[in-house]
Amino acid sequence: MSTPLLEMSGVRKRYGGVQALDGAGLTAVRGEVHALLGPNGSGKSTLDKTLAGTVVPDEGTIRIDGAEARIGGPRDAHALGVAAVYQQLSIVGDLTVTQNVVLGLEPVRRLGFLDHRAARDRAAAALERFAAAFAGRLPLDRPVGALGPGERQIVEVAKALARGPRILVLDEATASLHKEQVEVLFDVVRELRADGVLVVFTSHRLDEVFALCDRATVLRNGRTVGTVELAATDEDELVRLMVGDAPHQAPRASGATAAAAVAGDGADRTLTPSSTTLEVRGLTTDRLRDVSFAVRAGEVLGLGGLQGQGQSELLLALFGGAHATGGEAVLDGRPLPLGSPAKAARAGVALVPGDRGRQGMFAVRPIQENLSLASMHRRATAKVALRAGTERAAAQTMVERLRIKIGSLADPVSTLSGGNQQKVVIGKWLLDRPRVVLLDDPTKGVDVSSKEEIYAIVRGLAADGAVVILNSSDNRELTELSDRVLVLFEGAVAEELAAEAISESRLVSSALRLAPGEKL
Ligand SMILES: Nc1ncnc2c1ncn2[C@@H]1O[C@H](COP(=O)(O)OP(=O)(O)OP(=O)(O)O)[C@@H](O)[C@H]1O
User: Fold this and answer.
1) Considering only CA atoms, which residue is closest to atom 18 of ligand 1?
2) Is the model's pTM score more than 0.80?
3) Which residues does residue 6 pair with via DSSP β-bridges, in sequence order?
4) Which SMART domains does the UniProt record give (predicted)?
5) Could you tell me where in the chain the CATH 3.40.50.300 domains are found?
6) Domain covering 277-512 assigned CATH 3.40.50.300 in the classification
7) For ligand 1, which residues put their CB under 6 angstroms from it?
8) Which fold, 4-243?
9) Pocket mutation for ligand 1, best pick of 18, 447, 449 (most atoms within 8 Å of C-beta)
């Protein structure tokens, strides 16, 4: 192996009561895609951030090209050729694509004025790598806020590339990308590798890790537990390294066990009548065309197809968050009010959103409050007094069940790792035992063992009489959880797959058949 380009060793970082890094390290060479893996809260982002200069470690050494690197802030990291893309996007919605890509780059000044053309050229050069796939779809002068989450993420990557890095850190950079966007990003990463760049790649999607990376370093509880050659290992071995001796397959909870665990405190819960049925007839919005289907209590209905074909819009519309121009939804024979999330929540509908930062929670408020917001809302409107102790116990149950790694329930959610934040969003709604559970790509960024726990809770809710509708970009997840799958195409239901027809390959071929020109 050639001299390492990057050597990090003995890195420690404590946040209040939490030892985020406890002797972590990573050694990687130029022209390598190196995965950084570990369960939620194991310290991956913190290690990435010490490299990018946004977190200063308490202890530890970083060597770049054999020389000790003092990274006291992002400017030091830039000067050393390190650029990073994080889970939480750093782009500014009101600025254009160009302005975002050059932000902090100091474009050329002429006669004391910013040379906007030079800035635009620089952004265009960085975006050029994505040009073939996104031709005409990333208008450089549009505010980034008007773009979709995947496009915003691409802008973020372009911003990092505009810095011409030797080391590029991608922290969950694929989480909000559609499959075809992931392929484009992977092509760019492979080009960078061929150019000798070191890419440090963090993802919970092991299929991506095996498809893209050369080696992987695994963290557990803030410590490095090993580095493996991916060609010489398999998924089971990687998972064993990640979770240690703990079994990663959580026992499949029966409906009753899961329900009891979800309720936790035995507080005022009304059991869902087993007859619950949701009927949707001719639902039409800007992005949905005449969608009709029925789901019974206890059923998990999957939404498949290429991503962005109206799956999220359908869930949003059922939660009252999208303007319905036609059609209706009927829950247990009574019209479900469309157009008001508050009314939908009162009727027992819960939406677990995919984009946690924007829709799912109040980041600066305590974890306990976030976990109990949904149930507080229902109880407050029902004029039932809140008992702080009860809320606390319920929140604590969810923290244990989903293995949410926290210091204290009183800490703000913003202090949690990305995956743990997503678990809070899920826990918040599942605590309330909803009658209709709408899940929009719920386990993005959630680690393997917690995914199984979430699957068990979802199955438990269904077994207990809830209607569950699941949109997932992960075909394996759809296959594991769904009793039926509706394949959507351009806002309409194009095909329905019954239980025996659901498989990963069938889901892919179904989506491809519908859109022959598209590449997955
Ligand atoms: N600013 C902060 N304040 C307090 N605690 C923090 C802060 N940032 C991270 N932590 C804690 O440090 C630990 C490691 O977090 P980190 O984000 O590095 O984990 P991760 O491995 O990236 O997790 P994930 O897979 O969920 O993204 C977690 O317990 C987290 O709650």
Assistant:
1) 43
2) no
3) 28, 64
4) AAA
5) 4-243, 277-512
6) yes
7) 15, 18, 20, 38, 40-46, 405, 415-420, 447
8) Rossmann fold (3.40.50)
9) 18
